[in-house]
Write a structure and sequence with these properties.
The complex is a heterodimer of chains A (256) and B (279). Chain A has two domains: 104 residues, no CATH class; 130 residues, Outer Surface Protein A, domain 3. Chain A is elongated. Chain A is mainly alpha-helical. Chain A is built from eleven helices and five strands, in the order αααααααββαββαααβ. In chain B, the strands form three sheets. An eight-stranded parallel beta barrel of chain B has the order 1-2-3-4-7-8-9-12, surrounded by six helices. Chain B has nine helices and twelve strands. The radius of gyration of chain B is 18 Å and the shape is globular. The two termini of chain B are 28 Å apart. The chains are: A mainly alpha (256), B alpha/beta (279). The interface between A and B is large, with 46 and 45 residues.
Chain lengths: 256, 279
C-alpha cells in the first residue's frame, strides 16, 4: 500500500474509527503480541479523543463543570465529529463550539451562551498587546473631541448573548452547588484584559449601543447620543467614557 | 554536507506556563530552555512577554509539534511563515520538530503519527525538510517519536530510516532517548542497537521524559520522572554521542520548579559520569 493510502487509513481509524473495517487494519499494521492491529490503532484513537476533550476543557472550564465529565466528553466527541480541528494550534479547536451548541441545545438551553462567553474570555487572554491610552488623550483634542473616533484595544470585545449567563458563570466559577435558573434576557457583555487578567461585565443597553457605535466608526458626538434617553445624558456619557479609558479599553483616539 | 556544529548548551527544561512566574521574577538555575514554537506564535499576551524576558538571560531552542513533515497535505505555508517570524525574533540556538505526520486533508490530528519506513516515505520527507530549511534559512533537527504501531509495508528499520533522512536532507537529529526506549518495548527491538545505528555527527540534542506503563504497552506521557531503564539508556547515549545538550520534558502533571530542576540535575550527574567512563 502506498504512503498516502496508509495515512488515509490511519487517519480515519483515529478520527472515524467506526468507518474502518478491521481487516484493512490487520493487513496494513504489523502484528506484535500482545496487541493486534486494531488495538494498536485504537491507542491513537483514544489519545485523539482525550486530547481534543482536554483542549476544550481548558477553554470552557465552567461549561465542563455544568455538564460534568461524561456530558462534556459526549459533547466533545459530537463536536469533533462535525468540526474537525483545522488549525495547528489546538487552542483554536473550540472556536465553533458555541455555534454547535446553538444548533444542538443542551437541557438548560443556555449552554451555547455560556460557551460563547468562555470562548471570548479565552481569546482575550492571548489577544495582541496594545498600550491603552488614558482620558487625557481625549482632553488634548479640546473642541475637536466631538468629532474624534475611538479605537479599542485588540483584547476588547463585546459578546451578544441570548441568555444572561453571567450569574450562572459566577456560580460555576465559585463552585456553587445550586445554580441559578435560566434567564432568557438577552445581554451584551464586555470582555477585556488588564495586564494578564481577563475581566468581563454586562453592559447596560445604552452603553452597549454606545460601544457598538464606537466600534462602527461613529464620532464621539454620535457615540454620546446613545445616552440621550438618560436623565442626565451628558453626565452619563461622561462617566461611561471615563470608565472605558480607566478600564484600558481604548488604544487610540483618532482626531477628525 | 554535515550538520553545522551546534553548541553544547548543557542541561535545560521546557518553558511551560506553570513556571512563567519563576522565570519572570528571578534567575532560574538552568543552562537553557526549550520553548514549544506553536505556543508562542501569537504576537501578544503573556507567553511572548515571558519568552522575551527569558531570551535576554538564557539560550533558547524552539521545538515544534505540528509541522507534519511526513504528512500527506502540502506543508502549511502560514505555519512556516509564523515559525520563520518567531525564529527571527527569538534567534534560537536551533529549531526542531518531529519525524512524523499529524495532518490529513486539512484535519489536524494533534498527534505525532508514525510513518511507514519505505523509500517512498524517505523521498517525501527529504523533499519537505529541504522546503522547511530553505524557508527558515537554517538546518533543522528532527526528533524520533514514540510509536504504538508499525506498518507491514516498512522495508527499513526506524533507526536506518532516521539516519537516512538526516543524511539525505542534511538535517540534524534530536534523539529522544525515552522515545527510543518506549518504541523498543512496544515493538520488541533492541534500544542499544538503535543508538549504535545513529550517526554521531548528526545528533544535536537529547530529550528525556517519563512514560506510563499500561501493561500491554508503554505510553509516552511526559507526566512523571525519567525511569531507571531510560537513565541507563541515556548513559549509553552520552557514552556514544558525548555530552549533547539535554532536556527534561515534563508536560502533564507538571511538578513545582524545584522538582523539575532536581530531575535536570540528575541528568547532569548521569551525563558527567558517562563522560568520565568514556574518557
Amino acid at each position: 500500500m502506498k504512503l498516502a493510502q496508509l495515512q488515509d487509513l490511519l487517519a480515519r481509524a483515529i478520527a472515524e474509527p467506526d468507518t474502518v473495517p478491521a481487516e484493512q487494519l490487520l493487513s496494513s499494521i504489523a502484528p506484535h503480541a500482545p496487541l493486534d492491529a486494531v488495538a494498536r490503532a485504537g491507542i491513537y484513537a483514544g489519545m485523539y479523543r482525550n486530547r481534543l476533550a482536554d483542549a476544550l476543557r481548558a477553554d470552557f472550564p465552567n461549561l465542563h463543570r455544568l455538564l460534568g465529565d461524561d456530558g462534556f466528553l459526549e459533547l466533545s466527541r459530537a463536536y469533533a465529529a462535525s468540526h474537525p480541528s483545522a488549525s495547528s494550534d489546538i487552542g483554536q479547536f473550540g472556536r465553533h463550539l458555541a455555534d454547535f451548541l446553538a444548533q444542538h441545545p443542551g437541557p438548560r438551553g443556555d449552554e451555547a451562551d455560556l460557551a460563547r462567553l468562555e470562548w471570548a474570555l479565552a481569546q482575550a487572554f492571548t489577544a495582541k498587546d496594545a498600550a491603552p491610552v488614558g482620558q487625557e488623550a481625549l482632553g488634548a483634542l479640546g473642541e475637536a473631541a466631538a468629532e474624534a473616533r475611538l479605537h479599542f484595544v485588540p483584547a476588547f470585545q463585546v459578546v451578544a448573548l441570548q441568555h444572561d449567563v453571567l450569574p450562572l458563570w459566577d456560580a460555576l466559577e465559585a463552585g456553587a452547588e445550586e445554580l441559578p435558573a435560566v434567564d432568557a434576557q438577552a445581554v451584551s457583555v464586555a470582555v477585556w484584559r488588564t495586564g494578564y487578567q481577563v475581566l468581563h461585565r454586562g453592559l447596560p443597553a445604552a452603553e452597549a449601543e454606545a460601544v457598538a457605535r464606537a466600534q462602527g466608526g461613529a464620532s464621539l458626538a454620535e457615540v454620546c447620543e446613545a445616552f440621550s434617553e438618560a436623565e442626565d445624558a451628558a453626565g452619563e456619557a461622561f462617566r461611561t467614557l471615563g470608565a472605558w479609558f480607566a478600564g484600558s479599553w481604548v488604544a487610540r483616539v483618532e482626531s477628525a | 554536507m554535515s550538520l553545522a556544529r551546534l553548541p553544547r548548551l548543557g542541561h535545560g527544561i521546557g518553558l511551560r506556563s506553570e513556571h512563567f512566574s519563576e522565570f519572570l521574577s528571578g534567575d532560574v538555575p538552568v543552562d537553557w530552555v526549550e520553548a514549544i514554537s506553536e505556543n508562542f506564535f501569537l504576537q501578544g499576551g503573556r507567553p511572548r512577554a515571558v519568552l522575551e524576558a527569558v531570551r535576554q538571560k538564557l539560550p533558547v531552542v524552539l521545538h515544534g509539534v505540528s509541522l507534519s513533515i511526513g504528512g500527506p497535505d502540502p506543508l502549511d505555508k502560514q505555519h512556516l511563515q509564523q515559525l520563520r517570524e518567531l525564529a527571527r525574533w527569538v534567534e534560537p540556538a536551533w529549531v526542531s520538530d518531529h519525524l512524523c505526520w499529524g495532518t490529513h486533508r486539512g484535519r489536524y490530528l494533534h498527534d505525532l503519527l508514525p510513518l511507514p519506513f519505505t523509500e517512498e516515505s524517505l523521498a517525501h520527507v527529504v523533499a519537505r525538510v529541504g522546503q522547511v530549511q530553505d524557508t527558515l534559512g537554517r538546518q533543522i533537527l528532527l526528533e524520533n517519536v514514540s510509536s504504538y504501531l508499525t506498518f507491514s509495508a516498512s522495508t527499513l528499520t526506524e533507526w536506518d530510516f532516521l539516519a537516512e533522512v538526516a543524511a539525505r536532507a542534511d538535517c540534524g537529529i534530536l534523539l529522544d532517548v525515552n522515545n527510543v526506549y518506549v518504541s523498543a518495548r512496544n515493538h520488541g527491538f533492541d534500544a542499544e542497537a538503535y543508538l549504535k545505528a545513529i550517526p554521531v555527527d548528526r545528533v544535536g540534542q537529547f530529550h528525556l521524559a517519563g512514560y506510563s506503563d499500561h501493561g500491554t504497552h508503554l505510553l509516552d506521557t511526559h507526566d512523571s520522572p525519567v525511569t531507571d531503564p531510560v537513565w541507563a539508556l541515556y548513559r549509553e547515549a552520552v557514552r556514544r554521542f558525548g555530552p549533547v545538550t539535554t532536556l527534561i520534558e515534563w508536560d502533564e502533571h507538571i511538578p513545582p520548579l524545584p522538582r523539575l530542576l532536581e530531575e535536570s540535575a540528575r541528568a547532569r550527574a548521569v551525563a558527567e559520569a558517562a563522560v568520565r567512563e568514556a574518557a
